Amino acid sequence: MSTASSSLSQLREYSRDEVLGRLNPLVAKWFSSRFKDLTPPQRYAIIPIKEGRNVLVSSPTGSGKTLAAFLSIISELFDMAVEGKLEDSIYAVYISPLRALDNDIYKNLMLPLQEIRGMGNGIPEIRHAVRTGDTTQSERQSQLRKPPHILITTPETFSIVITAPKFREKLKTVKWIIVDEIHSIVENKRGSHLSLSLERFSNFLGRDPVRIGLSATINPLDKVAQFLVGCENGRPRECLIIDVSFLKKKDVALLAPSEDMVNTPVQKQSDELYNMITKLVRRHKSTLIFTNTRSGAERVTFHLKQKFRDVEEIDEEIAAHHSSLSREVRMKVEDLMKKGRLKAIVSSTSLELGIDVGHIDLVIQVGSPKSVTRAVQRIGRSGHGYEDVIKGRFIAMDRDDAVELAVMAQKVMEGFLDEVHIPEKPLDVLAQHIVGMALERKWSVDEALSLIRRAYPFRNLEREELISVLKYLSGSYEELKGRKVYGKIWFDGEHFGRRGRALRAIYSTNVGTIPEQTGIKVYTEQGRFVGKIEEEFFERLSPGDRFVLAGKVFEYIKSRSDRLIVRHAKDQKPTVPSWYSEMLPLSFDLAVEIGKFRRYAAMLLEKGEDEKLLDYLRERCRADERASKAIYNYIKLEIEYLKSLGIPADRIPSDKVIQGEIFLDEDGRYRQIYLSLFGRRTNDALSRALGYIASRRLGRPVGITVTDNGFSLSYPLGEKPVVSFEDLLDVDLEEVLKKALEATDLMRSRFRHVAIRGLMILRNYKGYEISVSKQRMNADSLIKIVKRLDDFPLLKETYREIMEDYMDVKRAKIVVDKVRKGEIEIVELGLLEVPTPFAQLIAVESLSDVIFMEDRMKVLRDFERRIKEVLHAGTGV
Amino acid sequence: MQELEFDDFIIFPYGVYIKELSSLVFADFHLGLERAVEEEGLYLPYRQFPEILEIVRKTIEVYDVRNIILLGDIKHEFGKASDQEWDEVLSLLRELKGYNVKVVRGNHDNYLIPILKREGIELDDPYLDLGNYRFAHGHVEVPLDRSLLMGHEHPAISIRDDFGASVSYKCALYRRKEPRILVLPAMVRLGYGKDILSSSREELLSPMLRRIGIDDMEVIVVDEEVGLSDLGIVNDLRKLMR
Are B240 and A543 a contacting pair at CB < 8 A? Predict the structure, then answer.
């Protein structure tokens, strides 16, 4: 049981009698008639909430979290109701990131509120209602006339209602705020956005309501608690942390479709994969299957249905569930699952959020989920009752996957969790809130600054940063002529406020952090939906180009108004890099653990302790025979290969060794690969920086490929490698990265998203949804223009988002530093005929991106030369 | 200043000088673009006009100029002229006082007439003849019995490297044989234009180009950073791109 340094020591378990004794008698009676006993989160949380303490509850699904949060609240509301003190006002706000969850909560509260009321005599009704983007105009009006006592909403809608002049008066009586599924928003900008809404709300109330956070497993809890409750005068507010996430027993195992994942034909492995899944599904009542991509979910569903049809003659018991499906389909699937009519749901990510899908007795994870925390969150969906065991099966898809999952399984059993990354003072989110604040009233810079700093992500906001956002929003970057239309707020250097009547409409229709609807849909000629690609990527495409999407290669045929038409280009190689990837990155913490494991495994094999390694895999990593053998063979192969090159086994790539090698690929290009086991986010930063230095030296573009286990530089035809990892030791990594990013599609795409969030590009204006094609201003020119402005905050935020959230420049610096100090060694193998086994997976990956020099002169000259050679060859010209 | 001669035309970034007529020709300014896209929720700094003006000024200093011919789409907004358009078009015309300014109508130039009237300029629609040349925007057919200079198409070219990354350049298109046509690059400062090598015939904007096709036209890169470069015939370049 953990306690944060910020909490007082009243954290203790309360007995059933203690708790029920403090509640309203009707509520207590109702509870006793329905439940045998309190669940652990309830035993710890109910009384502190009643006493007005901020609380963060971390526990798995099905542990009674909702009631732990609501029981005290309902009890107090009934006290007020009985005493006739209940007014037409809102007392509690429940915020969850998912509308479906809001609907669930609404239903779940309905019964208790009705039943408890029914147990008394003439008690006034305690009203609860949902308010989201879907709420109709008439519903909103009736909510204004007769406000619910409990408001159920989303982060975006919350930020709108706190600004609505009439509705927010009804919020003045709020005593409790519940933030549910907090783990799913703390690490992205939706969370940053909510944290500011909460501070604005407290400021509006003139007091701090009780904040209750509900979370699945996450680490570190004290940071999440600080995120929930914010700071006062630079010090975190007080929060009780209730961590009951590890009380459930775990039954975890790692499976593989074969023990030789390289030479066994793909078809056979695929068959075996589905056989394994089918067997597991049949042996359990209801199974949740997670894949890592939507296309993966579709494929698994398809094949499973086949298998079920072949044998049982039914296939309606299997269904897919992911965000590309329409809402109706998803709701239908959730409903069927709740009713117990589905044997299995296959999902990519959406079920991670806490929708109630009834009893699940097994979670299968196909391929690595890339972080221990995510693995625990996913398998934690199984075993609904508090006594049930959490049961999860990992299935490896390739050798690296197997190694990853082995370490993951071990860490899951050990209770290790990787750390969550919280975005640091995102200025685009701030811009949105400044507009919201300006709508409320006039502010002084100091007042605004002190409010903003109370939100955890913004605790370190500099005054100059706030000023730059105010300057941007007020159009102060412009010459006088353009100013009056450009500016959304007025700012005189000391104070700011609203300007223009359109501002409220702009705010309410454009608030939010998810760049919805971005992306161009891709369809086959037959009309089948393939996936979405980023607009910047689309800008680069020409008919005939081939690229990877949803794991397959497609050729671009033509484009219609809002979509791309492609055809399958099976067995052909892509001609352009697809940096837009659905894959989640491997967490740095886990990557380091995997590195340590590889070192350990190599050492055992070196000492001839093969059996010990196999035992370790079987016992500690819960690997089955095939998976154990597969991993064992993999590492053995690598050691033998290195030995043949004269490299000792302890120099195998690991957390202490980065291995470099070079080879000539089948197109005759030099590939320079670094096996750097630090996760894709760190490798992205390292590879781009190194790629930039290389392309600067050559004056030509260099391609980069990034994976969780390393990266590679692809040189243009005719060029030899001109850099080595050591070149990173003498540079300022951040500066180099910034330059490297300037010419990439990644930069353009992220800038567009930041510009949308920061209200520079509106999605919705004067009632019209801006079509995707209209939004698609040539990002090149846009960035060129804002670059000329001094310290433009949205550009600054784009760099920050890419370097800190998308990549991990901090960890990259740590790695480089360790190399400098000799704590990490670089082993250079030089030019090889064939890449080492570990490097092979990187070698066959297509390009992630190209570091482009933007030396437009050189590109043109090269092209002119080509023209001469090809077209005028033999003409004597 | 960078320039390249093609018969009687001198092409520079981003216009054409015809010595015989002492005329400068420009196309597709799209002034007022920033204001127009603001209506659509995109907030851009108002940088186009100062940059365009700078280019025009510099060019006037270099060549012996009597006439300045604008090939349409001077302004951007299809509907009524916005404040910005009134402002910037008038400022432009005032800067060019002292020269004989001719304006040919483009498809974006609705409601341009009142602005031009302020400076006593008539709008030529759909084309203007001067000497042996015809000047038009290009959005409607004009008779091709003399050499034509037009805009409208915003031609550009995208060059790929062997990684598939591409760089774009504005370009001019020149058809040497009869009927002679010179398509000017667009002056507009946002974006480069449409990649003409990957456009099918139906996708060309000008009905004349659609009818005649651009296969025989020469592609001339026109770029303020890189200069000018005659890349050759469209047909040949298309072959190269395979």
Answer: no
Q: pLDDT > 70: what percent of chain A? A: 88
Distant-in-sequence, close-in-space partners of B178: CB < 8 Å, separation ≥ 6: none
Instruction: Please indicate whether, in this complex, the C-beta atoms of A860 and B221 are within 8 angstroms of each other.
Output: yes
Contact list, A716 vs chain B (CB under 8 Å): 161-163
| A771-794 mean pLDDT | 65
Whole-angstrom Cα distance, residue A538 to residue A532?
Answer: 10
Interface contacts A/B by beta carbons within 8 Å: 131
Provide mean pLDDT across the span A870-876.
62
Instruction: Please give the residue of chain A at the shortest CA–CA distance from B226.
Output: A857
B231 touches A: beta carbon within 8 Å: yes
pTM value is 0.82
CA angle, residues A208, A209, A211, in degrees to nearest 5: 110
For residues A715-742, b (16+ Cβ closer than 10 Å) or e, as one string?
Answer: bbeebebbbbbeebeeeebbebbbebbe
DSSP designation for A871: H
* CA atoms in the 13 A half-sphere facing the CB of A655: 16
pLDDT value at A117 more than 60: yes
Closest residue in chain A to residue B34, using alpha carbons only: A482
Helix or strand or coil: residue B39?
Answer: coil
Check: CB of residue B157 under 8 Å from CB of residue B122.
no
Residue B34 contacts A where some CB pair is shorter than 8 Å: yes
The C-alpha angle B118, B122, B123, rounded to 5 degrees, equals: 115
Beta-sheet pairing, A825-831 with A670-675 = unpaired
Cα–Cα distance, B96 to B103 (Å, whole number): 12
Distance CA A171, CA A437 (A): 17
Per-residue pLDDT tens for B152-210?
Answer: 999 999 887 666 667 789 999 999 998 999 999 999 987 778 889 888 898 899 999 99
Extended beta strands in A127-249, E state: 128-131, 150-153, 176-179, 210-215, 231-232, 235-236, 240-243
Which pLDDT belongs to residue B132? 94
Alpha-carbon distances of A163 from A7, A35, A154, A456, rounded to whole Å? 32, 40, 15, 21
Give contacts of A 396-425 with B, CB under 8 A: none
Q: What is the nearest CA distance from A853 to chain B, expressed in angstroms?
A: 10
Q: Does A502 touch chain B (CB under 8 A)?
A: no
Which range (A297-301, B94-98, B113-117) has the least confidence? A297-301
- Could you give the angle at the alpha carbon of B55 between the alpha carbons of B52 and B59, nearest 5°? 140
How far is the alpha carbon of A434 from chain B, nearest alpha carbon, in Å?
A: 17
Give the whole-angstrom CA distance, residue A740 versus residue A690.
9
CB of A477 less than 8 A from some CB of B: yes
Q: How confident is the model at residue A476 (pLDDT cuts 50, 70, 90)?
A: confident
Which among A477, A577, A854 has CB closest to B163? A577
pLDDT tens digits for range A692-736: 999 889 888 888 889 899 999 999 888 999 999 999 999 999 999
Q: Which amino acid is at A475?
A: G
**Residues A724/A767, Cβ–Cβ less than 8 Å:** no
CA end-to-end span of chain B, whole Å? 34
For the segment A88-109, what is each residue's pLDDT rounded down to a tens digit? 999 999 999 887 788 888 988 9
pLDDT tens, position by position, A420-434 = 999 999 999 999 999
Domains and CATH numbers, chain B: 4-241 (3.60.21)
Which residues contact residue B215 at a Cβ distance below 8 angstroms, ignoring those fewer than 6 apart? Answer: B233, B234, B235, B238
**C-alpha dihedral sign at B116, B122, B126, B131:** negative
Task: State yes or no: cis peptide before A155, omega within 30 of 0.
Answer: no
How far, in Å, CA of A270 to CA of A250, rounded? 28
Is residue A778 less than 8 Å (CB to CB) from chain B?
yes
